């Protein structure tokens, strides 16, 4: 186990040294280098920090007293340098990690597309437009946008109205990975779109979402006479009408992680290549042992998704270092204590400035992230609890962080880059005709 710990820790210490010496992000070590470091004899496992060790032992004893099995609890606490492991328990053992799996999905998504990526949805048509009537089919081609929601459909409908379309005599043809309102069934997503571009057929949800949009946003009226049809490719005679772009990938990831949205994670995971591809991206980015991560999906649903606390913190550090050259940080893609109040942040009492990700299943409560501190700098942590009292685990996870911040000085320095504001749903500026 010690060799695996050393292997993971040394990757980050070496990267940090290169970063300081050269002044730029270090390249990822090759496999041969990783093996060489794992077998190196001049390094020894750092001694635990007395403060972190005492806090960890206090809660391990409390959990055991209340019936939790010690072997089912995992903790890893370290600083950014990697050489300073502060405390660990079952640190390299893969445990059911619930939605901490979304950290892996976040890392793989950033590696594949980059932080400024936009998913595109193309709307095209067959036939002529005459007096507001499209005498043919309306075609929607998706590319896996996981955040095409009610407001986006309304905005696209208004843009089609601006192009002079009020009626469609043919059908709505849906091509590719088109999702709407987190619905992964393409036919149902198409039905949502057909409804969304015609205010006369709106459900209560569409009416409510429209009321939250900018004052004066029109209500689109496009009646499609035909049904929703699926096709592998657009019709050969289809011509371009408009291009819809999603918010930036960082904004999509932040939304996914704040609300721990399983559908969004599954959609992104599918586009990345599924759980096996996500695992490979994690190993490539962190140098972690393959034994420390086992995934059956990319959302975390299911006890079979297992990740070690060590692997979790390694992924978070890899994300932070990936974002740094873009003048971004981990708070641009994860919830931040003191900024975010909804979703998984509701009723949590973590130190201000803690960027984090939660994970919950019926018998699992997990929390991972980073605390900016005065004395220790960035302190990365992963806590995975297994047992029946989820509310108690959540409260005590927050208490652990509060005690560490009290000892080392809370320093809430994480501020999301001001050039990356939250995406506005239904923003017509992301539609090009």
Automatic annotation (TrEMBL):
**Mind listing the GO molecular function terms for this protein?**
serine-type D-Ala-D-Ala carboxypeptidase activity
Q: Does the keyword Protease apply?
A: yes
According to the UniProt record, where is the region Disordered? 412-433
Name the Pfam families on file: Peptidase_S13
Record-listed E.C. numbers? 3.4.16.4
Q: Which GO terms describe its biological process?
A: peptidoglycan metabolic process; proteolysis
Q: Which UniProt keywords apply?
A: Carboxypeptidase, Hydrolase, Protease
**Out of the domains of life, which is the source?**
Bacteria
Question: Which EC class, in a word?
Answer: hydrolase
Q: InterPro entries, from UniProt?
A: Beta-lactam/transpept-like, Peptidase_S13
Q: Does the keyword Glycoprotein apply?
A: no
Q: Which family does it belong to?
A: Belongs to the peptidase S13 family.
Name-wise, this protein is D-alanyl-D-alanine carboxypeptidase
Task: Give the species this sequence originates from.
Answer: Limnofasciculus baicalensis BBK-W-15
Instruction: State the organism's lineage.
Output: Bacteria, Bacillati, Cyanobacteriota, Cyanophyceae, Coleofasciculales
